[in-house]
Each structure stands twice: as structure tokens, then as C-alpha cells.
Write a structure and sequence with these properties.
398 residues; alpha+beta; seven-stranded mixed sheet; 10 helices; 22 strands; 28% strand; globular
Length: 398
């Protein structure tokens, strides 16, 4: 009874789209979906449950995220997967691409002169009503699969001809193949599994910084662009307009996030991440986790809001953490282009919670045969990337 050809670990965006692909195209493949949160249309914790992080954020599906998956599997496969995602979403919404035209010409020239590379982030806008309709649609299409909600996977054991998946309910499921789709809330668990299987190939990078918030009128030359900026080890953006910075809960800490897709979140402000990619040889994941927790403890709040000036003058709650000192120079440099940033506020904790790097082949398969990864477990951020990779994992198995 507990033998399955495919086990999907995680019922977020990646896991749910993988389940839909199997139910639609391979209905005879015996599959189990295991999710730590609640099932469709149920009250649940933030980031947990059926479709995971989709109700959070501002509902933007950034198209460059799709390219990050194509970089793994190749352009033809990537294009095909994106088309499938689009076809699924068009059951509940219009897949209309909103083109990002970028900052004004004069601002672009200033940025280029200062060495910043501008990346445009065209997107498709998803609304809360679309999320609920999508949940109903996909759950109705996948009800033939075996699903276990409100139960967490505690261990995955590799055997010669498959895997044993153990859960907190002391249940065991034998699966020929595993699609690991733990998502954003499961970044620590994914890293633990990768470590157990000796899959980690690189663990040198920690991505952390602050989320800046300021009046939109102070960034008029950015023309409400959702672009991102890059210079050296610094990443700025995407620029998020007209919403509110909110806490995104991760078990024992919160991370500053953004919400704008409901009227209660509307403001006249713009916010954006100001992130450094900092080397900690062999300890990138651990340092990311440590700094997230330390800033959470030091601020004594779910997320803390302070002035940029207090940080530059050494009077911030995070000033004791010397790892953040590099940001002083980078913020000062950016202020030469956007002077009002020095009057802005910033929020912490702000980290990019990702696992250490592993090898993933063109089928989304790891170095362990039969173990496939999707979404953030594959090191790729974004809703489109998660949905596409879930579909591609199924194709990789078949």
C-alpha cells in the first residue's frame, strides 16, 4: 500500500505543479505528495501548505526567473515548460506580460557610468482571487493522487532500487523516485538532506543585507521600474512599488518581505533589497542562517525598521555585527546616484535563504539517481522557476 513510483516532498508551487503534470499526463503513475502544511483551501501558516508561498508577496511572476531554469535544462525544454505553466495559469487568469521599461534614460546613464548593470524584470501580475481559483482548479485535477498533509518528512533513506521516506507520524513510504520540492520555507531541511547524501559541491556564499524603504517620489527617475541592479558582489532590487514591508516567518526568525496585492497593503512607498554576496569559504549556508537569526535577536522584533543614517553612524541595532560593515561603503556609493537613500529607512533581518549548491543535470536530477530537485531546492528563486522546475522533474523521471 505504501509503495509509490514517485514521491513529491513539498506541496508548494513546485510540488503542486509536478503533481498536476503527473495527474494530467501520466495518470497511471502511482504518486504520493507529502506536505508539512494544510491542504487546499485550508487556513495555514505563512509559506506552508498547498501552493506554498503563492498567497504571499505581491503576486508578480518575473519572467527572468524562467530563464534561470532554461539555463539548466536548455532553451527548448525551458520554453516548453513555460508554455505548460502558462496554459495552466490561463485556466484562472490572463497571462498578460507587463513589460519593464527600466529607469529613465538619464538615470540609466548615471547607473552605467557608476558601474551598475541594469536587469529588466518584466512580469505577469497574479491577484489573490487568481491564487484561490488556481488552488481549487489544481486540487480538483490532482484528487486521484495520494496526498498526506500536515505531516513532515523526517528522513529520506537511499536504497539500491529507490528511497524510503519517513514522516513524523512514524509512517514509511517506498518511492522509486523523489521530487524534492521543499521550497522557501524548507531551505534548512533541503540543505540537511543534501548534506546527508553528500551532494553539496559549493558552500561559500552568504547573501544578506537590508531592505530599504523610501517614498516613491524620491525615485521618480526609476519610473516605477521593477528592475534589478548589479555591481560586483552587490545586488539591488527588484524595486517593489506601492506596498508594505512585512515579516515573512521562518520557524525561529522572520525575514523582511513585501506585500502589495491587496488594498490593505497599499502605500506610496517603494522598497528594495540591498544585498551583498559575501564569501565565507565552506560556511556560506551556516553564515546566512546565523546572520538571519542574530539580526532577529538583536532587533528583538519580527522585523526591525531603522534609519540608514543610524547604520552609517554606527548607532544601529545591527552595528555590532561587523559582517555588515561592507554595506556602509556600498550604500554611500549608491547615494551618489540616489542621494535620498541616506534619509531612507531599512528593515532587517534581510537574507536570501538558499541551500548550498549541488549539481543538477538537464533533467533536474541530482548526482543521486532518482532524486530530483525543483524550485528553491534547485537553487532557483521565483514562482515561475518553481512551477517550471516541478513540471521538468516529472519529464526527467519519464
Amino acid at each position: 500500500m505504501n509503495n509509490f513510483e514517485v514521491g513529491i516532498i513539498g506541496g508548494g508551487v513546485a510540488g503542486v505543479f509536478a503533481a498536476y503534470k503527473i495527474a494530467k499526463d501520466y495518470p497511471k503513475v502511482k504518486t504520493i505528495l507529502i506536505e508539512a502544511g494544510a491542504g487546499p483551501q485550508k487556513r495555514r501558516q505563512q509559506l506552508w501548505g498547498f501552493l506554498g508561498s503563492l498567497p504571499s508577496g505581491d503576486g508578480k511572476l518575473f519572467l527572468p526567473d524562467a530563464k534561470s531554469i532554461s539555463d539548466i535544462v536548455g532553451a527548448p525544454k525551458g520554453k516548453s515548460a513555460l508554455k505548460e505553466v502558462r496554459n495552466i495559469l490561463e485556466n484562472v487568469m490572463d497571462f498578460k506580460v507587463i513589460k519593464d521599461r527600466g529607469p529613465s534614460i538619464s538615470m540609466t546613464k548615471k547607473l552605467n557610468k557608476a558601474g551598475y548593470e541594469t536587469e529588466l524584470n518584466s512580469y505577469v501580475q497574479m491577484l489573490p482571487v487568481h491564487v484561490h481559483e488556481l488552488s481549487r482548479f489544481i486540487s480538483s485535477e490532482t484528487n486521484s493522487l495520494t496526498c498526506r498533509f500536515n505531516t513532515e518528512v523526517t528522513k529520506i533513506i537511499k536504497q539500491k532500487d529507490g528511497f524510503i521516506v519517513q514522516t513524523e507520524e512514524n509512517q514509511e513510504y517506498r518511492c522509486n523516485n523523489i521530487i524534492l520540492a521543499l521550497g522557501r520555507s524548507g531551505w534548512r531541511q533541503s540543505n540537511s538532506i543534501f548534506s546527508d547524501f553528500n551532494l553539496i559541491k559549493e558552500n561559500d556564499l552568504a547573501r544578506f543585507g537590508v531592505r530599504i524603504e523610501m517614498p516613491g517620489c524620491n525615485l521618480k527617475e526609476f519610473s516605477k521600474s521593477t528592475s534589478s541592479l548589479k555591481k560586483g558582489n552587490i545586488e539591488i532590487g527588484p524595486f517593489s512599488w506601492g506596498g508594505t514591508v512585512i515579516p515573512e516567518d521562518h520557524f525561529d526568525m522572520a525575514i523582511s518581505a513585501f506585500r502589495s496585492n491587496e488594498a490593505r497593503w497599499e502605500t506610496e512607498k517603494v522598497s528594495f533589497n540591498f544585498i551583498g554576496n559575501v564569501l565565507f569559504p565552506g560556511k556560506g549556508f551556516e553564515q546566512t542562517d546565523r546572520l538571519g537569526q542574530l539580526t532577529f535577536i538583536l532587533t528583538n522584533e519580527r522585523i526591525s525598521k531603522e534609519k540608514i543614517g543610524s547604520f552609517l553612524n554606527g548607532r544601529s541595532k545591527i552595528s555590532p555585527l561587523k559582517e555588515y560593515d561592507f554595506l556602509k561603503k556600498e550604500l554611500t556609493n549608491f547615494a551618489q546616484i540616489v542621494p535620498n537613500v541616506l534619509k531612507a529607512s531599512f528593515h532587517v533581518p534581510t537574507i536570501i535563504p538558499m541551500t548550498a549548491k549541488i549539481n543538477v543535470n538537464k533533467n533536474m536530477e541530482t548526482d543521486i539517481p532518482g532524486l530530483f530537485v525543483a524550485g528553491e531546492a534547485a537553487g532557483k528563486i521565483g514562482i515561475l522557476a518553481a512551477a517550471m522546475s516541478g513540471i521538468l522533474c516529472v519529464e526527467g523521471i519519464k
